[in-house]
Amino acid sequence: MTGRGGGFELLDIAGAHGCEAVHLAADPATGMRAVVAVHSTVLGPGLGGTRFQAYPDEAMAVLDVCRLARGMTYKHAACGNDQGGGKAVLIGDPATMRTEALIEAYARFVDRLGGVYLTAEDVGTTQADMDLIRRVTPYVTGTSLELGGSGDPSPATAWGVRWAMAAVAERLWGAPSLAGRHVVVLGVGKVGSALARHLRDEGARLTLSDVRPDVVGALAAELGADVVEVADAVEVDCDVLSPCALGALLDERSIPRLGCAAVCGAANNQLATDDDGARLAEAGILYAPDYVVNAGGVVNIAEEQAPGGYDPDRARARVERIGDTVRRVFALADGHGIVPAAAADRLAEDRLAAAQAGQGR
Ligand code: NAD
Is 154-296+324-350 in the same CATH topology as 7-71+84-147? Predict the structure, then answer.
């Protein structure tokens, strides 16, 4: 189906790439080109961030956004959000292309989708962009607190990782405490630094690593932590390795080098391939699945949709339940004789199937 409106072309490719719908829009006046993928609305409207980044061509953008939207379906389902999987990309280099007019054109596109997709901040977009989008459409989350939004999701993400790590500690050492445990935090940006402060407050021993020596040095001095070179971080003999930088850290080369008993961190897509979940298990390392561990941000943002609007206390309580979700994942893995990464998928798929059955689909 192809439609036209608001100065841009609108194209729906229902069913493409396993998604319920893929919408493409271009606005020649501003150079805006965007793709919105709605993977599933079984649990609610598709909710996920807008990436602003360059792609070699539009087909690559469509593939990427569909993959990301599918990931959001699983993340929302596993963490108990009544939201579906959605994601968007604005195609181009934000450093050279971002203008108010372009963001507004994108907001009109999101608005025309009528609420089947709710956007949010992601790589390349900012809270200021979300505030701008809010002027045009209600279908945006993660706006600033002054506009009734939930603000930066990073503190909630870090808080969720802390509760996931407590569940890991309980599983391995019998009590949900990190006191005296040695944790390596790899990547001390918005999430990693907040997590490190929580762990310090709990009495954990910390080793920090980051490609920015000044930043990691200052944080280590503040927290009384050790510092290790990025290249050596995975080898540190520790209780928990917490990847909080880039994805695909865990692969056939890095896993044999790991010095940790467990992996539990915020980075997305930590396993390079599906086989790496089994590799970790074979190495005797407990893996807390990334999209369950790092769901605090989306739990927090989804609370904006609750009746009565965003309530920080209610959101915080829901974020803390990530620990229980991690426990359920481990129990499912035990019960079915599967690795935790597969158990997380099963948890999400079971919830989607139950919702679908309830809807008579
Ligand atoms: P950030 O950009 O604030 O921090 C990332 C940090 O990693 C930076 O300090 C950077 O210098 C460092 N880094 C980059 N490359 C590195 C490398 N090769 N080795 C070690 N350190 C490196 O990002 P963030 O918001 O803290 O997010 C961290 C991770 O968590 C990302 O993978 C992100 O996708 C994921 N995540 C974040 C949120 C959130 O709410 N911010 C939610 C879910 C998932």
Answer: yes
Ligand 1 atom, smallest distance to 192 CA: 26
Torsional sign, CA 253, 257, 261, 264: negative
- For residue 323, give the amino acid letter: G
Structure tokens at 216: 């990691």
pLDDT given for residue 302 in this prediction = 95
In the set 70, 76, 87, 181, the catalytic residue is: 87
Q: What is the pLDDT of residue 359?
A: 73
Residues present in the chain in total? 361
Q: Is residue 194 within 8 Å of 154, Cβ to Cβ?
A: yes
| Nearest of 190, 177, 184 to residue 285 by alpha carbon | 184
pLDDT of 5 over the 50 cut: no
As given in the structure block, the two tokens for residue 355 are: 């919702």
Residue whose CA lies nearest to ligand 1 atom number 25:
190
Closest approach atom of ligand 1 to CA 245: 7
Instruction: Give this prediction's pTM.
Output: 0.93
Q: Average pLDDT in the 34-61 region? A: 95
Kindly give the pairing relationship between strand 2-5 and strand 32-40: unpaired
Please say if 190 is a catalytic residue: no
pLDDT(240) > 50? yes
3-class DSSP assignment, residue 2: strand
Q: In the numeric block, which tokens belong to residue 240?
A: 């928990």
Complete edge-to-edge strand list for the sheet that includes strand 286-287: 226-227, 205-209, 182-186, 240-243, 262-263, 286-287
Domain 7-71+84-147 sits in CATH 3.40.50.10860: yes
Report the DSSP pairing between strands 226-227 and 205-209: parallel
User: Domain locations in the chain?
Assistant: 7-71+84-147, 154-296+324-350
pLDDT, one tens digit per residue, over 305-324 is 999 889 999 999 999 999 99
To test the pocket of ligand 1, the residue of 121, 216, 244 to mutate (highest count of ligand atoms within 8 Å of its CB) is 244
Amino acid at 36: V
**Rounded to the nearest whole angstrom, what is the distance from the C-alpha of residue 245 to the centroid of ligand 1?**
4
Residue range 154-296+324-350, CATH number: 3.40.50.720
pLDDT of residue 89: 97
